[in-house]
């Protein structure tokens, strides 16, 4: 009977793969087992989803990625942000008030931050090397042209939280970036941008520090 159950449930296990594949198998196995033993089939689908959602919080740390998934806290270091430190704090506050699945917090002293924010003379950009991980360059070029510093801050943090540019776009969209013009001072993500970040951090596999770096030059 147990064997039959395994066969019936295989397609569901497979359909979860894209979300679940980065979770180390030792943490996945107990869930499959308890599901097989305890749950009836229709309930198992819902139960599995619920468990997978809670797993990121409950899973014991099995390496840097698991620790990250457990916390869902993205730490940042704005010590290199020079005159933009206040704008960084406001951009952080925007995101912390906009979403619940991830929160940005200053790294404590001695702790290696997930995100570094540094001022420079180029165009604002974000080098993202994983979800919730990377470097934001707070470029003075756009500030000098009159772009709003808090919008720049929350926009670049949006890249860190997994959002791409959505250009051209209206001022109501945060990720429309500079295409909304210098008169746009809106630092808030719109409903779909919030939902996308909630999705990004709502799954079981929150990873950080992957090898590939994506640079968003705006
Ligand atoms: Zn951008």
TrEMBL record:
Its cofactor is Zn(2+). GO terms for molecular function: metallopeptidase activity. Gene3D superfamilies: Collagenase (Catalytic Domain) (3.40.390.10). It comes from the Bacteria. Keywords: Disulfide bond, Hydrolase, Metal-binding, Metalloprotease, Protease, Secreted, Zinc. Residues 9-20 have a biased composition (Basic and acidic residues). InterPro entries: MetalloPept_cat_dom_sf (IPR024079), Peptidase_M7 (IPR000013). It catalyses: Hydrolyzes proteins with a preference for Tyr or Phe in the P1' position. Has no action on amino-acid p-nitroanilides. Belongs to the peptidase M7 family. This is Extracellular small neutral protease. It comes from Streptomyces coffeae.
């Amino acid at each position: 009977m147990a064997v039959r159950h395994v066969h019936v449930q295989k397609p569901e296990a497979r359909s979860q793969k894209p979300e679940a594949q980065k979770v180390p198998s030792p943490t996945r196995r107990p869930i499959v087992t308890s599901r097989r033993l305890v749950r009836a089939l229709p309930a198992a689908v819902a139960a599995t989803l619920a468990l997978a959602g809670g797993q990121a919080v409950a899973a014991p740390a099995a390496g840097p990625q698991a620790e990250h998934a457990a916390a869902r806290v993205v730490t940042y270091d704005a010590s290199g942000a020079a005159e933009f430190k206040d704008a960084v704090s406001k951009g952080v506050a925007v995101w912390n008030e906009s979403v619940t699945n991830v929160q940005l917090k200053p790294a404590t002293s001695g702790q290696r931050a997930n995100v570094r924010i540094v001022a420079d003379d180029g165009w604002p950009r974000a080098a993202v090397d994983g979800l919730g991980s990377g470097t934001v360059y707070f470029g003075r070029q756009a500030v000098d042209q009159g772009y709003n510093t808090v919008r720049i801050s929350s926009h670049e943090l949006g890249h860190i939280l997994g959002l791409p540019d959505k250009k051209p776009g209206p001022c109501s969209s945060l990720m429309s970036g500079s295409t909304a013009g210098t008169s746009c001072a809106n630092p808030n993500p719109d409903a779909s941008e919030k939902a996308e970040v909630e999705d990004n951090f709502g799954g079981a596999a929150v990873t950080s520090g992957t090898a590939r770096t994506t640079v968003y030059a705006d």
